[in-house]
From TrEMBL:
This is Peroxin-12. Pathway: Protein modification; protein ubiquitination. It is a multi-pass membrane protein. GO terms for cellular component: peroxisomal importomer complex; peroxisomal membrane.
Amino acid sequence: MTDLILSSLYPTVGGQSSRPSYMELAGAADLSAGVWPSVKFVMAVLMDRHPHLQRWLKHWPSALTFLLALLEYTSITEHRASMSEHFFGLCRESVDLRKLEGLSAMDELKVDRLREEGRVLTGKQKALSVLLLSLLPKLLDKSQGRGSERQWVDLMRRGFVAVDAAYRIGYLLGISPYWSPFMHLIGVRLVRRTGEEAPQGMGLRHLLWCLVYAIQFGQWYMSVRSSLRSKALEGRPQVNVPPPARPRPASAKCGGVGLPVDKRVCPVCRKKRNNPAVSAVSGYVYCYVCLVKAVRGTGKDPVTQFDMREEQILRLHEPD
């Protein structure tokens, strides 16, 4: 068992030269997973500092998905690997080839010929690989941004994380040749690229190096930006910024409920507030139950009629 785990972590142990190590596969997976958060952070900064570009930048998820699909299609077609897998010297091949290995000398020659000709993936496997590589990061990012009304989405995401971890442990222990459940679904495994298959051109290699450094820098900056910001403000005099003015209530014709004279009264039920909650989009305080019912029914703030979601309701604890 010890030799098996060592051969999974370090491929030189046990002579399994074609089987990628756990570290290589984990590095490729982390590199691929870091693209979407890094681009998302850059787009958020650009839209915050240049509001006039929001009209164009708000479509960045669809544009990034299309760009990833194009790049991954090129990488899968030419190198039989995603961009991150190609960077780590890995390539994909059908698990059906693994079943032929060791059966007979004729079958092994057939496998070698298919590898030399690059026919180790079917057209369906290539298409599904590109589809998963381009759409899966977007779906995972959307699942993390769901509110409490879509708890089943969060449950599915947690289930996927657990199943993915189980597949990684199975690969580490040599139980399964599959690194992820999606590779199992399309019947693909990852192998180390041989010397004959190594790419000759260095242009793409240099481009991948630049991409890796950019992604790693983005991940590092996102992890330390809060501490950098606090250090930059040390020693500066504190400026008391006045709170922004509350938005004006909407008229009754637009559906607004108006404001009561007594600030302790809920604008919806016109009674003294019970279990208060504040709307994050307007700053007005209501009864928690009244605000939840209003948002679930109309999707708007009762006073201002601004668009609002249930997760933008904040509970308050007022002194007696």
